[in-house]
Amino acid sequence: MFEKLRIHIEKIVPLSDEEFEHISSFFTYKKYKKHQFLIQEGELVLCNYFVIKGLLKLVYTDDTAKEHIVGFAMEDWWETDFQAYYKQTKASMSLECIEDTEVLCLRLEDYRKLCEAFPQLEHFFLEKAYMGFISAQQRIISSMTVGIKERYQQLVEKYPSLIQRVPKSLLAAYLGVSRETLSRLSL
Amino acid sequence: MFEKLRIHIEKIVPLSDEEFEHISSFFTYKKYKKHQFLIQEGELVLCNYFVIKGLLKLVYTDDTAKEHIVGFAMEDWWETDFQAYYKQTKASMSLECIEDTEVLCLRLEDYRKLCEAFPQLEHFFLEKAYMGFISAQQRIISSMTVGIKERYQQLVEKYPSLIQRVPKSLLAAYLGVSRETLSRLSL
């Protein structure tokens, strides 16, 4: 189960067997059932999660109890309430399984020890952070400039395998429209 | 003029005089007048810019020639069309001076050499990337969950000095509404 993590990291930085054995010792394997929560709003966020198998939604719930989907995560993605994790504050979002899910958990103190022991992993995490930032910025631009239909098409093009697995009601909550609006657009 | 950069980096990683002297040699100082462009849409993006003095806007222009403000940058901020810079593609945005501006430019090849020579700077850039990602994610959540008036108030609270310097018409283009809508809300 750690093999996926190794392949994932080695896309950016090469590692010896000994190095990877040491690196993997910082991670904990966990298994969750569909609908289980990895992060609960209002609680401390202990881990950043690398998804080995499954599908998750990162959800922000507003004052009227309406759910907004901030992000999805599937195989080979990292997900957490990043602000709460990194700044060690309470979660403003929740992270919930859409499918049965297996993850590797990295606690913040272990993340710090890991980067100290393997400075090349800072390069790996930096690359991931840049990609996350670029994606978030593109999402901001899309939401300002194009309509729902085009944003939906962009999603399909960017993440074809994700779209097939995510229920339409959740895609609507990600795009910020109602399920009915998606249907009206024949999406 | 490099002193500001040193103070900025040393908030995250300590540096010796020799180290900083070497680091600063990777940067080039440049001065621009109000309305000048640092990045033109459709052209290659050579640099990431650290702002010493002044104010900039990062602009995405849509198919109808309408300008959308993706971000502002003032003293101590970094700004570029990050996707185009990092992936060495053509700019999809432009970066323009709202005030006379002085910057330190870091070319991508120099950024890479810099990180190779000073691995602790990857830690610095990683911290910056995380903060950028967190800010972008918060902006996405705000745009999905709260109205223009509240988003304006959040801006005022988060960046009080920025708000005083940015014309209302540009704040409207950042928030994704017309100047008239801002006025109607008495903002």
TrEMBL record, chains A, B:
Q: Which Pfam families match?
A: cNMP_binding
The answer on whether this UniProt entry bears the keyword Transferase reads yes
Classification via CDD domains: CAP_ED
Q: Which UniProt keywords apply?
A: Kinase, Transferase
Every copy of the Cyclic nucleotide-binding domain together lies at 30-116
Matching SUPFAM superfamilies: cAMP-binding domain-like (SSF51206)
Q: Name one GO molecular function term.
A: kinase activity
Q: Per its UniProt entry, which superkingdom is the organism in?
A: Bacteria
This protein is called cAMP-binding domain of CRP or a regulatory subunit of cAMP-dependent protein kinases
